[in-house]
């Protein structure tokens, strides 16, 4: 039976690990989860606002006990339990309408007939889900892959197959290749969002398999989409994964110009496009229609100067920066001060990550924007996106993809009193990381 002090230590370690895992690649997430002891794993599975990829990897590689804790976590919104409608809900839906039965018949359908019907009714997922529940011959994954490679299915049909098709993971990945389909088609993004929501794929896997490449870039901002779209934490996770794929471009403006020039017509995945840009093996860009909003998306992902242009403020800004290292008498007072500085333009999200102490508070937006009852209700999403992007940059610059270094950061974060850059510097130097006397 653990003591109260040991229980508090496990809870705090899990809280810090959850924040660190937001910024780690998949193999590091899996490695760090495996290093936690049973009490810390329990608290990690029950942590608030676990990232989508962490939930997916916990369910994929964790124990039955881990899966039970995640399924009972009320904060896991839509990934993959309890928020997402499951098989029981779809089975309880009304059967096919008389109009549909008159058009397609009662079945059973052959695989070719089913695929033809999915193509015909695949704009939205509702009718494809009904068709998949009707009697039909088993849909062979090989046949489905060949049909997808020949002529990609509409987005609604793909979403229905992800929801109720019970397909192998490699088939789910292949269904995200849209071939030559027009990105301007409505609801093209829904299968990708659904794959993450269901726990089928992580954001890193999404980046590795979505094609064409410009769709991956556009998935980083679906704020104007209707209906199903990213929550704010999912959006930050997707931006983190895309930024990781774009890292070989560094801050070379020639590479970024090539990305913008070739992305509209390139039919492969984003990592393949980036690798070919770096190697210089791309020819002239393929002809194709312009992709709306792509230029703005690429500019938002391009690396910014390490020190942004200082907002107006002078001495007031210097005082605001200094105040981040000295917490106020209460958390509420600290939050009011930081929010006021953000509103007046004296601080940015990057400033909070670089200068706020302790580092674990900087990584938790609740400690500088206040508590919320839902992850999409931050009234300053720009500050959250900027803070997460800066933390991504610092982690990548300091420790890359070394699981041992990530573990040293995560395990020392609970008791470290300095800023995040200070912690990363001490870890990479190999000395003591204690920020306390």
Helix content: 55-70%
Number of helices: 27
**What structural class do helix, strand and pairing data support?**
mainly alpha
Which geometry do the CA atoms define? Answer: globular
Mean pLDDT: 87
Number of strands: 0
Topology overview:
Layout: H1 4-21, H2 26-35, H3 38-45, H4 52-61, H5 64-71, H6 87-91, H7 98-104, H8 111-120, H9 126-133, H10 141-150, H11 155-164, H12 169-174, H13 190-197, H14 203-209, H15 213-218, H16 232-246, H17 253-262, H18 270-279, H19 294-301, H20 315-324, H21 331-343, H22 349-355, H23 359-363, H24 366-369, H25 381-399, H26 403-412, H27 420-429
Helix pairs in contact: 1-3, 1-26, 2-4, 9-11, 11-13, 14-16, 16-25, 17-18, 22-25, 25-27
Written account of the structure:
- The protein has 437 residues and is mostly helical.
- The model is unreliable at 432-437 (pLDDT under 50).
- The two termini are 31 Å apart.
- The protein has helices at 4-21, 26-35, 38-45, 52-61, 64-71, 87-91, 98-104, 111-120, 126-133, 141-150, 155-164, 169-174, 190-197, 203-209, 213-218, 232-246, 253-262, 270-279, 294-301, 315-324, 331-343, 349-355, 359-363, 366-369, 381-399, 403-412, 420-429.
- α1 crosses α26, α11 (155-164) runs parallel beside α13 and α25 (381-399) runs parallel beside α27.
- It has 27 helices and no strands.
């Amino acid at each position: 039976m653990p003591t109260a002090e040991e229980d508090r230590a496990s809870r705090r370690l899990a809280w810090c690990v959850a924040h660190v895992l937001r910024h780690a690649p998949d193999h590091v997430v899996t490695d760090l989860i495996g290093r936690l002891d049973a009490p810390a794993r329990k608290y990690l599975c029950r942590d608030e606002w676990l990232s989508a990829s962490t939930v997916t990897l916990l369910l994929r590689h964790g124990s039955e006990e881990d899966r039970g804790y995640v399924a009972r976590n009320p904060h896991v919104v839509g990934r993959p339990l309890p928020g997402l409608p499951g098989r029981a809900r779809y089975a309880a839906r009304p059967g096919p309408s008389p109009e549909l039965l008159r058009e397609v018949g009662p079945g059973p359908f052959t695989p070719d007939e089913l695929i033809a019907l999915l193509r015909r009714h695949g704009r939205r997922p509702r009718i494809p889900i009904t068709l998949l529940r009707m009697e039909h011959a088993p849909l062979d994954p090989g046949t489905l892959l060949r049909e997808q490679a020949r002529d990609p299915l509409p987005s609604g049909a793909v979403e229905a197959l992800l929801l109720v098709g019970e397909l192998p993971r490699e088939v789910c990945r292949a269904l995200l290749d849209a071939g030559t389909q027009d990105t301007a088609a409505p609801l093209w993004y829904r299968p990708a969002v659904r794959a993450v929501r269901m726990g089928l794929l992580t954001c890193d896997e999404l980046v590795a398999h979505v094609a064409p490449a410009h769709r991956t870039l556009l998935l980083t901002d679906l704020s104007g989409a209707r209906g199903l779209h990213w929550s704010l934490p999912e959006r930050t996770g997707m931006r983190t994964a895309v930024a990781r794929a774009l890292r070989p471009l560094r801050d070379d403006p020639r590479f970024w110009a090539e990305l913008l020039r070739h992305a509209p017509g390139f039919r492969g995945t984003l990592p393949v496009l980036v690798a070919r840009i770096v190697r210089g093996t791309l020819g002239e860009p393929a002809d194709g229609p312009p992709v709306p909003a792509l230029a703005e998306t690429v500019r938002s992902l391009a690396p910014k100067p390490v020190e942004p242009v200082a907002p107006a403020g002078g001495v007031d800004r210097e005082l605001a920066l200094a105040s981040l290292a000295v917490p106020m008498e209460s958390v509420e007072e600290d939050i009011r001060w930081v929010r006021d500085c953000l509103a007046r333009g004296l601080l940015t999200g990057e400033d909070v990550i670089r200068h706020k102490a302790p580092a674990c508070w900087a990584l938790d937006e609740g400690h500088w924007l206040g508590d919320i009852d839902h992850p999409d209700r931050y009234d300053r999403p720009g500050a959250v996106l900027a803070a997460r992007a800066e933390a991504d940059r610092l982690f990548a610059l300091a420790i890359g993809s070394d699981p041992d270094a990530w573990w040293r950061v995560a395990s020392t974060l609970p008791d470290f009193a300095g800023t995040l850059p200070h912690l990363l510097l001490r870890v990479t130097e190999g000395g003591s990381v204690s920020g306390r006397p």
